[in-house]
């Protein structure tokens, strides 16, 4: 039988820092050529290589950390109580977010993309009425939508699956976790997860491109559910985490090389590669993509275990604030980007303004809701309850947010 660790402070810090990266990433989405809710008139390929620095691994890292946190909480509270708590803390913010937080994103999207002339009140009638007539060709906006809150919906489903798995396996879950922990040593820490991720990417990505619609997103499920369950298993094997610390520089080096290779690949003109080598080159790119993603996760966790495995008042505050910040940040970016567009600021200045205002306003919202017994549950915070986050395996008297 494995023993759960008492402290994994560094995973809280990883989760916190990942969401700061997410704010910068979503501001960046305003300036790249990739489709997003609103777009800058200066959108170009310029910063896309910088966006690639985090896009392959950030969400996978969050699902893995969420798996660790969920597993530790489940071990402490039991499956029934765990599932009730997780459902309340994930579903209520998801529903509230879809009805209140997300609609402004969809409103400004149709204002910019299809020149919608109606007011927000009229738009909300269409939004709640499941209107599907906002289209550009065959691309139609599905409403209501969860937009960036898809992560919460997926996390809830994966949580249910983990609870069912633990109830079905009983003590055998810990035995399986121990075997996986014993298997992942040395070079196998890199090779085995990369092999699973690469097989999923090569087999499913072309057939099931990303939708974030839950019911048809099979490639993402194969990736994110695997990482979530892997985290749940590794939560029961505390001897695993120091191994990542020993591999932190190796992981960083492989991630850097992977980023460089992918940057070159995406910059190649379409007509430069002959048809005979396109498919082999695509599969090679997908393997490199997975190597980059997992190596970056190893590096982040390894450096965090080395340098951030400690508690502080800042950790306790940020661990509680980060979920409300996540809920509101993208709506703030979309609304502010649309509002300040007429000022025609230079993109570097405008981007910095958006980052600063998003961080400040997001934390202002977090400070308000964490003090309110009415608003707190709508943003995943239940003040006064005895819960814990991923850093503490035992009971905690600190009020904490929904595990992410």
Structure description:
This protein has 404 residues and is an all-alpha fold. It has one domain (9-102, 146-378). 66% of the residues lie in helices and 1% in strands. The protein is built from 16 helices and two strands. It has helices at residues 9-28, 48-51, 58-77, 79-101, 103-113, 120-128, 150-169, 172-183, 188-204, 218-234, 241-246, 248-267, 275-307, 313-340, 347-369, 375-378, and strands at 135-136, 139-140. It has a two-stranded antiparallel ribbon. It is globular, with a radius of gyration of 21 Å. The two termini are 26 Å apart. This is Acyltransferase family protein. GO terms for molecular function: acyltransferase activity. InterPro entries: Acyl_transf_3_dom, Glucan_succinyl_AcylTrfase. The chain crosses the membrane at residues 12-32, 59-78, 90-108, 151-170, 182-206, 218-235, 247-266, 286-305, 317-340, 352-369. Residues 10-366 form the Acyltransferase domain.
């Amino acid at each position: 039988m494995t023993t759960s660790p008492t402290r994994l402070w560094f995973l809280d810090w990883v989760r916190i820092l990942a969401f700061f990266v997410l704010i910068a990433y979503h501001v960046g989405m305003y300036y790249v050529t990739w489709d997003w809710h609103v777009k800058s008139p200066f959108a170009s390929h310029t910063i896309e290589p910088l966006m690639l620095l985090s896009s392959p691994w950030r969400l996978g890292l969050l699902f893995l950390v969420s798996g660790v946190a969920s597993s530790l909480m489940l071990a402490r509270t039991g499956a029934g109580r765990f599932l009730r708590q997780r459902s309340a803390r994930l579903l209520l913010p998801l529903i509230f977010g879809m009805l209140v937080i997300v609609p402004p994103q969809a409103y400004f999207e149709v204002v910019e993309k299809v020149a919608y002339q109606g007011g927000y009140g009229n738009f909300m009638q269409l939004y709640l009425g499941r209107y599907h007539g906002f289209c550009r060709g065959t691309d139609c906006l599905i409403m209501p939508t969860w937009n960036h809150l898809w992560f919460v919906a997926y996390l809830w489903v994966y949580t249910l699956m983990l609870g069912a798995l633990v109830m079905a396996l009983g003590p055998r879950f810990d035995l399986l976790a121990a075997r996986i922990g014993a298997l992942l040593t040395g070079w196998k820490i890199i090779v085995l997860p990369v092999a699973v991720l690469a097989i999923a990417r090569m087999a499913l990505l072309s057939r099931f491109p990303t939708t974030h619609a839950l019911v048809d997103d099979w490639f993402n499920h194969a990736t994110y559910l695997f990482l979530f369950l892997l985290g749940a298993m590794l939560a029961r094997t505390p001897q695993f985490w120091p191994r990542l610390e020993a591999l932190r520089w190796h992981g960083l080096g492989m991630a850097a090389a992977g980023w460089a290779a992918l940057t070159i690949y995406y910059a190649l003109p379409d007509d430069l590669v002959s048809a005979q080598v396109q498919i082999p080159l695509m599969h090679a790119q997908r393997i490199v993509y997975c190597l980059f993603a997992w190596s970056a996760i190893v590096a982040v966790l390894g450096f965090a275990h080395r340098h951030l495995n400690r508690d502080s008042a800042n950790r306790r505050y940020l661990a509680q604030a980060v979920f409300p910040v996540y809920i509101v940040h993208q709506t703030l970016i979309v609304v502010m980007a649309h509002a300040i567009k007429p000022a025609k600021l230079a993109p570097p200045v405008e981007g910095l303004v958006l980052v600063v205002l998003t961080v400040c306003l997001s934390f202002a919202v977090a400070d308000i809701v964490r003090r309110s017994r009415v608003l707190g549950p709508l943003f995943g915070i239940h003040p006064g309850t005895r819960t814990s986050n991923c850093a503490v395996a035992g009971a905690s008297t600190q009020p904490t947010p929904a595990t992410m």
